[in-house]
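Hello Y.,

Per our agreement to keep a running log of every chain we model this quarter, I'm adding this entry. I've kept the format consistent with earlier entries: sequence first, then predicted structure.
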Amino acid sequence: ALAFGHGSTKTNIAISASDDNTCIIWGLSSGEILHTYLLQDPPQCLAVDPADRAVYVGYGDGSIQVIDFYKKPSLSNPLYDSALQHTPTQPPASDRWRLDSIASPILCLELSYDGTTLLSGHEDGKIRTWNILTKRFFSQLADFSSPVTNLLMLPLAGFPNPPRPKLKLVNVVKPRYESSLDVDDGGGGGGGMGKGSTSTSTTPANYAFSVQFASMLPSSPTGHCSSARSSFQECLTHPSFPTSLLEEGIAELGSLSATPQSNSQNPSIPPSEDPSALRAENARLKFELTAALSRQRKAVAEMLELERMQFEKAEDEAVKRARKKRRRIRRMKREERRRRE
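Predicted structure for the entry above:
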């Protein structure tokens, strides 16, 4: 059997299962063996977890074996840990799911889109569902008159899928996931937590994901760019106030009727047609507009600087907390070794 991971980077994996009771994890880009698992029986089929964290193996007796890549605590990806690559691992018997009754061989496996339900197709034509959270058989989905050799989970349908503007990835800053912070000092076996075990690791949070538009925003509601764009669409997609809009606003303000006091020296000229008053008003408005734009740029710069300082402070605090946790773990391990000695 052969299966592939869902990644698109150099760390994507390929998984092969053979009749010699081995399951080998390969680096898809390098072709190197990352890890070897020793199985109890010859495998029949494989299914990879949507997050590439585990693989499910179907056997001829109708049972399913779960191989969790992150079973052993490690600060890095266990598949790329040089200390674990050359040591074959045998999955525990507790990770093998069995039916209460005799079942026919499993010919194919398929996972749901959310990774919580596993479907198995059997030689006797039955399709069974397994609950991954409880690690137990859930129900029988169908019963056909011929062997089920292939299963395919259809993608979700019915949701709106409008065209989206293309984005360019700038930077991703994520916290360090330290799965080794799970401390098990109760001696629990089979991958379970012992009585005295405590779990201090949590799901990483506070991800910083920065993107930028690779092109101008679409000017039409349907997302398709058109050659003719209205003034409103131009203002909406422009990075600042367009020059044409500013000039139009200044002209409209200048065309407003001036106060009677502005033309007291030459009452024969109507207020709206006094060239000197219009020039003075335009000059004043331009000065005020320039000052307003300057204040806006300064406020934006100060806001960006404040956000940068807050982000750096949060990153420093996260690093300090991670260091404290590592020191606490090392201290607990030293105390445990002293008690054993």
